[in-house]
Amino acid sequence: MNLLHNENRNSNRHKPRMEKKLHFSIWYVLFAIMTLFLFNDLFFSSHTQEVPYSTFKELLRQSRVFEAGVSTDRIEGFYFIGDSTALAARRARYDSLQATASRRSGFNIREIFSSAKDRELFVEKNLQSFFTRRIDDGDLVKELEAYRVAYRGVEGEDWLRSLILGWILPFAILFAIWGYIFKRMNPSGGMMSIGKSKAKIYVEGQTKVTFKDVAGIDEALEEVSEIVEFLKNPEKFQRLGGRIPKGVLLVGPPGTGKTLLAKAVAGEAQVPFFSISGSDFVEMFVGVGAARVRDLFQQASQKAPCIIFIDELDALGKARGVNVYGGHDEREQTLNQLLSEMDGFESNTGVIIMAATNRPEILDIALLRPGRFDRQIVVDRPDINGRESILRVHARQVKLAREVDLKVIAARTPGFVGADLANLLNEAALIAARHNQKRVEMHDLEEAIDRVIAGLEKKSRVMNKREKETVAYHEAGHAIVASAVPGSDPVHRVSIIPRGVAALGYTLQLPTEDRYLMTRSELIGRITVLLGGRVAEELKYGQVSTGGQNDLERATDIARSMVAEYGMSDQIGPVSYGRGGRTLFLGAEIPESRVYSESLAAKIDAEIRILLEEAETRVRTILNQKRQQLETLAQRLLEKELVEKNELAAILDGNGAKDDGK
Question: Is residue 482 within 8 Å of residue 491, measured between CB atoms?
Fold first, then answer.
């Protein structure tokens, strides 16, 4: 378990957008069909019994038939199904009621019973409706009168009504249910539009984003400004025989502003903007993705000049032939259609294809060849000046106090991307609102930085006295060593307030400038700082706790990289052996076979151990020399739980020069 952290890292918090999606299931169809048949059985199915004509004549001779409707081709009515004794009683009752009932055309036998008892005992329990096909029988009317059957003439069978109720209406209900299912799966247009493109179309000016809203990526802005110039004035390039790149691929980590940059291009050029995600093309139905690609490019050609922007291209454009399950994947068919459409577009039609991805290494090489995505633009993490510019853009909507210095905030957020900085200002605004402040002040931004980097304060987490003291000495050890090792990032804050999931404390180091290279001595210094907390515990208690597990793991990783990857070991030599595995496209990692012998592996392990032991010895020397400062800082942490940079400097002031680091 990672209990204690020495916070010296680049934060790249990216919160995935969560969308509720409805997944198609065959059970929906089965449920719809069952519902249809039940509905048809309850409302449209007839419970009338069909009997042969001979059976009808036999029932007539037994005086069981009470009512008959006669048409040219059928006879329908009711017959009694009780025993003979009950039949005689019911017949007498029926004759009596019929004699007093008003005669009218088309009367129903149920209408002559005014008593609820008669309706229950006579109709519901003893009568069965029937029909039979009529044959040529000249004595039929005489027999009906002889056996006291109330008869009437009715129209022939309504074939149109039967067709509508028996066939057309059930199928209409089935198709309505089916269409509703498809509409839930594809809200843009229902069943008939499943092959239509899901791209959101922003007409001129609707994106409401221009280059003024983009900051911190000046090089990328300069690259895409050429596209804007082509869309506004294509003759300038065509006159000299030049052609604009057909496709532009924006590559960079999540949150750096790739989508924002594409919208800014459309906003500056004042052209329609088609925005779609790569995952929107792929469906469970074969051929749907390819159909959507065709429809997208057809719409774009009609609105040229315009921009097609495909976000998360890696969801669609993964290299073909890597499907571990075999078969012709629907995604590959969609990709083939995309490649075909890009080949079919002339470079001077005014349709620019832009795409964004943070995983360019897994894209199919056919996408990256000239004539498709000709130009790749890197949208990288901003430097300190870029972060300040981004903060100023997002601060337009936030009420900041006068003393807020965004340059200081930019210096304290190394590794942050545009999305992180926007989230930082939002968190600060929420903190200020929570305290009923009228403006966002500097301490709100400081608290927001701690929340983004280290996590939310766990005020409810109560530690016992011994554990809290251990955490205090651990973090004090990190801070003392960091202040003594030359080249290490200065300590900005030391805290023993629990934060995040498992951090019981943290030492926050902030670099004074953006760094892209590190020397051997600087890497050794970083290992030394990481081991400071572990050694401080050992000096105080004579043993170490599990709190240094993460520190030890990170120190070991740095040492292994120095020996096996960076060639920084005299014993191993200037050779890079690499480590780890090859990433499979499904997200798993395939371990690679080792490219060196067992004896060399033993030497690498020995060199790693030597680096760590030398660093530990160095840490022990530093802390022994500064034992008084260690005790003072630990006690101050136990009292206040938080020590800022100025107070830390006061504790360390006048205690000798820094260690030479050799």
Answer: yes
The CATH number assigned to the domain holding 637 equals 1.20.58.760
Predicted local distance difference test score (pLDDT) of residue 500: 63
Catalytic residue from among 427, 441, 475, 537: 475
Q: Would 15 be classed as within a structural domain?
A: no
Which residues contact residue 535 at a Cβ distance below 8 angstroms, ignoring those fewer than 6 apart?
477, 616, 619, 620, 623
- Looking at 423, 454, 485, the residue that finishes a domain is 454
pLDDT tens per residue across span 60-86: 888 788 778 788 778 888 777 776 666
Query: How confident is residue 326, by pLDDT bands cut at 50, 70 and 90?
Result: very low
Q: Is 250:262 a contact under the CB 8 Å cutoff?
A: yes
The three-state secondary structure class of 492 is strand
Instruction: Please determine, for residue 109, whether its predicted confidence score (pLDDT) is greater than 80.
Output: no
Q: Which residue has the higher pLDDT, 440 or 153?
A: 440
What does residue 318 show for φ and ψ, rounded to 5 degrees? -60, 150
Cβ atoms of 313 and 363 closer than 8 Å: yes
CA distances from 344 to 299, 369, 470, 637 (A): 14, 15, 68, 68
In this structure, is residue 310 part of a structural domain? Answer: yes
Q: In the 8-state DSSP scheme, what is residue 558?
A: H
- 143 catalytic per annotation: no
CATH, residue 415 = 1.10.8.60
Whether the predicted model's global pTM rises above the 0.90 cut: no
250 with 301, same domain?
yes
Q: Is residue 621 part of a domain?
A: yes
Q: Which residues of 188-226 are buried (b: 16+ CB within 10 A; e: fewer)?
A: eebeebbbbbbbeebeeeebebbeebbbbbeebbebbee
Structurally, how many domains does the chain consist of?
A: 4
pLDDT (tens digit per residue) in 123-145:
545 677 787 888 877 788 888 87
Whole-angstrom Cα distance, residue 275 to residue 310?
Answer: 6
Got the DSSP string for 115-149?
SHHHIIIIIIHHEEEEEEE----TTHHHHHHHTT-
Place of tokens 């040492």: 559
Within 8 A by CB and 6+ apart from 415, the residues are 9, 10, 11, 12, 381
3-state SS class at 662: coil
